[in-house]
Amino acid sequence: MRPVLQATHIEKSFNVQNIRTRALIDVTVDICRAEFTLMIGPSGCGKSTLLAILSGMSSPDQGAVHVGSFNLSELTDEQRDLFRLKYCGFIFQGFNLFPALTALEQVQVPLDYMNIPEDEARERALLALDHVGLSKRKHLRPAEMSGGEKQRVAIARAIVKRPVILFADEPTSALDSENGRNVIEILRATAKETGTAVLCVSHDMRLLSKADRVLQMEDGRLLRDERPNAVSQSTERDVP
Ligand SMILES: Nc1ncnc2c1ncn2[C@@H]1O[C@H](COP(=O)(O)OP(=O)(O)OP(=O)(O)O)[C@@H](O)[C@H]1O
User: What ipTM, to 2 d.p.?
Assistant: First the structure.
């Protein structure tokens, strides 16, 4: 497995009212292309903090995150924003859709930010909606969609950029089991078919059997790093 992201000796603490919480303690981990990696662990063990650091949304107190030739700690805030825009996709538990936009418009938004010409953006957005099985629902606004459909639009919006890494934070927790399974199958297929590295944080133990790799966190440490199922590698994506 070729890692696309390497994080070494990550430390992160928070101080609140003179109480120091060590959220991450000496975490070293890499994330590989074409794999669906699941990060699990009890509430408060540091999963979201690690996801934020790996995606450049927050900085570690110590340690480094390398993605391709980028050392995230050496980038300015603006460079980090650009890095995320170009190479990372994000899916959140709350979908984060714009109420006024149709499914198609939601998916085109990141491509507009990337200055992709309108015609190409529309074509790519339609393909992404097709990938999540929603091409026939492209004119619907969030208020007209089910939770599962909204999450699939959010996935289409994340993958339309063709990200090298896709970060998903509790993507199934607001969904019933059937929609949850559907979303996980789409994330797995995205990893296999496009070579994207998918890192998914979840409490949902049903996902364990679907993961290529399981990272188990506890009390700020990475306790277990296993690949329970054999994996075949497909198309590979790189950060230059
Ligand atoms: N901004 C913050 N300020 C203070 N403490 C924080 C902050 N963010 C996280 N923490 C603390 O760091 C620890 C790790 O939190 P984190 O949110 O990463 O855990 P988690 O595993 O994602 O939890 P959950 O599964 O409940 O979302 C917790 O003790 C939390 O209270």
Answer: 0.97
